[in-house]
Amino acid sequence: MRKFIIDTDTGSDDAYAIMMALESESVEVLGLTTVSGNVPLEKATRNALMTAEICKKNTPVYRGASKPLYRPAFSAEDFHGNDGMGDMNLINPSGKSEEKHAVDYILETLKAYPENEIELVMLGPATTIALAILKDTDTMRRLRHIYSMGTAGFGPGNVTPVAEFNVYVDAESYDVLLNSGIPLTIIGCDLCFGDAVLKSPEIDRLLTMGEKQRFFGKCLQRQKTSNMEKGRGCIATLPDAVAMSVALWDDIVTGSTPVFCYCRTREEPDYGQVIIHRQDGGLYKDKAKNAEVITGINAALFKKRLMELLLK
Question: 203 and 217 in contact (C-beta within 8 Å)?
Answer without folding.
Answer: yes
